[in-house]
Amino acid sequence: MSPQRMETARVDALAAPLPELLRLEHVSKRFGGVQALDDVAFDIRQGEVVCLAGENGCGKSTLIKVISGVHPPEPGATIFFDGRPVHDLSPARARSLGIQVIWQDLALFPEMSVAENIAFERNLGGRPHLVHYDAMRKEAARILERLGVRIDLDKHVRELSIAQRQLVAIARALVADARLVFMDEPTASLSRAETEALLAIVRRLSGEGISVVFVSHRLAEVLDVASRVTVLRDGRLVGTFPAAGMTQAKLTELMTGRTFDHSVRPPAEMTTPPVIGVEALSRAGEYEDISFEVHAGEILGLTGRLGAGRTELALTLFGMTQPDSGRIVMNGRELQLRSNRDAIDAGIAYVSEDRLSLGLVQPQSIASNTTVAVLDRLVDRLGLLSPSRHRVLVDEWIGRLKVKIGHANDPVSTLSGGNQQRIVLAKWLATGPKFLILDCPTVGVDVGARAGIFEIVSELAKAGMAILLISDEIPEVYFNADRILHMRDGRIVESFVPSQTTIERMERAIHA
Amino acid sequence: MNSLVSTFLNPKGGKSASGASPLGEIGGLLAVLAALVIGLSLTAPHFLSAATFTSIAFQLPELGLLTLAMLIPLLSGGLNLAITFSANLSGLVLAWVLKAGGGADAGLLVFLVGVMAAIAVGALIGLVMGLVVAYIGAHPILVSLAMMIFLRGLGEFITRGGDVAGFPPYVVALGQGTLLGIPVPLIILIAAILLWMLILNRTRLGFSIYMLGSNLEATRYSGVNTGRALTMVYVLSGIMCSIAGIVMLARFNSVRVGHGESYVLITVLACFLGRVDPFGGFGRVVPVAISLVILQVIGSGLNLLGTNQHLATALWGATLILVMVIRALWSRLRLDFLFRRR
């Protein structure tokens, strides 16, 4: 089907409504004392693309689980599919209706081939109980052709890129004659080009009459394909809005119920001496000839595309790797960082971009994660860890950063992304840093919670800390940094001052 | 009071991976122990006697000290398969010093020098394994397996496969005597348990061992010198092995390479029975100690009932399987309860 046809199909959906596919009304769901969904309504037409938006914990996942038959809704809900009422929706019934969910983790079998992943379901368990490899390959090939993509059928899924795995997951959904496909945060780990390719496929599905629900809170891309946006907040329906005319700012406001001050930081005269200076720093294959200074109270942004060498540079400043040449000067004294302990002792802290596996020891307690970097401060006269000092320190930082926790002994993994990031900040602030490196500090953090993180960062700068803010989201550095460096292929290629440029100009420069 | 107790037992605050509180773990294990004691005293008429408890008290320390040597590597997410041969080799070092210092006439000073040398050798064995695990990045199973084979070969070469015996009488008193009515080996075990609790609960090293046992890289990124901590894990394990080796020498008045070989996997079993997470990061000393008592009671009780020693070993395995099933059912029942409430 040609792109024009698809475009027409979508416009038709707006003009002369296509038949309705699914309609839910009065859907509520309680889990113990938590009202996960409260009288929510949702509908989608055949071939329509709808975006489902909301912060983590707003009920998106519960709604999907109700529609896919995993959770039965509370009595009083009505569900219509193809105009007919559906009672006792079970996972099997939902599948037979053609409802497919592609969860964010994709749930593929990494050690099996592409063909097996796509077509195993229909080719297993037949009579005789043998696997029909030929039929499987043929079916998988047919589906991939229908999607217009080429992936080697015999490759193991673990060898594929994230974007290719996503396509395999979509293909698997289509094998089961999908009519309604939910995609949970499908663009979260895709590059811009990969996102474009995925959206082209969504348009293709839509043109074939398959309805798609996109779950996302990053809307720039989704707004082009979706005709409507349904917003949930705290388990309640905020409303369903036409995509045309929706902006990211307005959507954020709908999702969080708050307005955010979208203004750049006022230009500041940096009269204070630099806290840290980097002079001609190079490390083969990672970054080259990097020089900059960060002053007390300054937030320096560092942006650029993935693979530009930003994290590699940060790891050297944190003492995890050693530069081949160049100097790091802190408060006028040259630093020789042999390990990150040296960096921490010098007053440098690093909030990793990978909170899951590097930022926090996930299964261990909130308390342990808060104090792991300052164990020296917890010892009593005998040189033993003092439980009371430990408790006092944990309570102090949880209070100062307003972290919402159940009990300090709970595993840190039980916290939301935003609160986890506050624990990471607490851990580092407890070390009393003078220079704080934030590497993509809002990955996996809700829109509302992001504002909270940046409030803390701004307070820290006001108190005189020097901050390096690394991010690949241009608006994030634009609105939160005093000065922004653009890094490309390991070099700093230009710098911006937010009050003297626009986001659009920066985006053009960086994605050119 | 309750919170005070739990703070002492668990000041670091880590709940076990399965979510039970430390007091719950201990309560459950004590209940199993009580049930065993009652069951055995009903079926074996002589079970509730001083003789039984004396025999348990003398047998427990050997396995107990080796279990402590296994515990810390398990907490760090590793394993030490070389514990028994490390103990044997440390025992050999003590025996060699005693022989060189006069055999049966060796003085107390010679004995103390021998003990120091034995502990130093245990620590050295641990240091080698620790350095290889921490800085070469080899898997602890492979490193300790290689060390085990090396030590066994070395020990058998030195002893020609025979016993080394003929020590001063006070050494035997150490292994078989009592102090204030308490068997000396048991006193050594209790001291070792307290030392391990102190290290794990109240030192920076202990804190770091739990953290790196869950996630080595994240712990390293937090500024902990994980290489040093991981090395110390095996040094501590090696030192505890040598204490076990010294106690074994004293109890049997001889050293033979291969003695206690079958204990290796039983120490792992005792740790898992005591709720140590097989993947590292979680586990406490006290529940492991209670598990040891449970295993020893089963062994001694069956002995009294006149069953074969091999059957006792089989029942140890069966106990662990049973306990795992009960724990799984228990947590499932609790989950069901949660679902019903929802």
TrEMBL record, chain A:
Keywords: ATP-binding, Cell membrane, Membrane, Nucleotide-binding, Repeat, Sugar transport, Translocase, Transport. InterPro entries: AAA+_ATPase, ABC_carbohydrate_import_ATPase, ABC_transporter-like_ATP-bd, ABC_transporter-like_CS, P-loop_NTPase. SUPFAM superfamilies: P-loop containing nucleoside triphosphate hydrolases. Residues 22-259, 270-512 form the ABC transporter domain. It comes from the Bacteria. The keyword Metal-binding does not apply. The keyword Iron does not apply. GO terms for molecular function: ATP binding; ATP hydrolysis activity. Belongs to the ABC transporter superfamily. PANTHER family: CARBOHYDRATE TRANSPORT ATP-BINDING PROTEIN MG119-RELATED, XYLOSE IMPORT ATP-BINDING PROTEIN XYLG. This is Monosaccharide ABC transporter ATP-binding protein, CUT2 family. It comes from Consotaella salsifontis.
From TrEMBL, chain B:
This is Monosaccharide ABC transporter membrane protein, CUT2 family. It comes from Consotaella salsifontis. InterPro entries: ABC_transp_permease. It holds the Pfam family BPD_transp_2. One of its GO terms (cellular component) is plasma membrane. It comes from the Bacteria. The chain crosses the membrane at residues 26-51, 63-87, 107-134, 141-159, 179-200, 229-250, 262-278, 285-305, 311-330. Its main location: membrane. The lineage of its organism: Bacteria, Pseudomonadati, Pseudomonadota, Alphaproteobacteria, Hyphomicrobiales. Keywords: Cell inner membrane, Cell membrane, Membrane, Transmembrane, Transmembrane helix, Transport. One of its GO terms (molecular function) is transmembrane transporter activity. It is a multi-pass membrane protein. It is found in: Cell membrane.
